[in-house]
Amino acid sequence: MPTRAIDRRWPGATVIVAAPGPSLTPEVAEQCRGQRVVAVQDAYRLMPWADVLYGCDRRWWELHGGAPDFQGERWATLGTTSNDNEAIADKYGVRLVAGKSADGFSLDPSVIHYGSNSGFQAVNLALLFGAHRIVLVGFDMRIVDGRRHFFGDHPKPLINTPSYLPFIAAFERAARKLPPHVEILNATPGSALTCFPKVTLNEALADPVGRRPAERLAAAD
User: Fold this and answer.
1) Cα–Cα dist 219/126, whole Å
2) Which phi and psi (to 5°) does residue 172 adopt?
3) How many other β-carbons are positioned within 10 Å of the β-carbon of residue 115?
4) Average pLDDT of span 145-158
């Protein structure tokens, strides 16, 4: 299956990107229902109704049998990685987009940037779908009560990250190059990712689409 360009399906929209961090709970997942949602890897277990499931690791797809209970589109990258994702494309109906290592988010719909983690790539996917506001949930980027994910650790042969610092650094570099029309809000309580404005999920979903951080502050005065 060849790679494909990403269609600009949600121009100007708010999109939730849900990572499987410890803070992702059934209650948070339910609050996201009805929104446009990109689920990252195991987040689909709490959000089988999400629009898109993203995972960059062939071994994850194999371990989960292609996530047969998931109802939406499946996406992964194909590029300079050790994973032969072409092998899972036809097997599990995974759509492939070209990927490469580069700073910042890709603005080219034919490629996304790796950023060292699936969460970064899922945010890049949402941006290329046309989102003007991206809301992060489950992006703890730290170990909470001994857990890296809401379910604990990935089983073997998957690798559990020893450090979130490379992931955080990739987001920090991307934040400095964010297009002016794009806003990323972090609605993850206690997140170690501090380069995006932190809000509650209620605040993120209540705000009018397209209003910039300064305008939100002005409205709160």
Assistant:
1) 27
2) -65, -40
3) 27
4) 76
